[in-house]
Amino acid sequence: MDHLRELYQQLILDHNQNPRNFREISDCDYHKKGHNPLCGDQLDIFANVDNNVIIELTFTGSGCAISKASASIMTETLTGKTIDEANNIFDKFREMAKSGSGVENLPVKLTVLSGIYKYPARVKCALLAWHTMYQSFNSNSNSDVNTEKAE
User: Fold this and answer.
1) Is 39 left (phi over 0), alpha (psi -120 to 50) or beta?
2) Is the domain covering 2-146 a CATH 3.90.1010.10 domain?
């Protein structure tokens, strides 16, 4: 079990130090800002969608290792999915992050964050990019996402 935990930690550190899809899309279909005032994490989510399929999902910003790794893994996981599939994965990921349950219902890449529920102060860090993505696709509001108000 320690070997698995060490592997997960290495993957999180790798995604933090070498985030995937870490760039702005200047002419995107969707853009939303997210902020976690409790720890100062902030990011922007950018997406291009064609026929309801996410063809490009990127982010920029700064934050802790968990926040940045979660955003990086999210962009890899959701690219190529429909918005409905992304919303479904968001619901399952949020449940896993908050309770530790439902890991078996998620893409394998997301299991590296399966232990986050044990650290309640870090759950909002892991969910920041996800809430921002979800609000980008599902809200008519132009307001920023603030994790203090999320759940």
Assistant:
1) alpha
2) yes
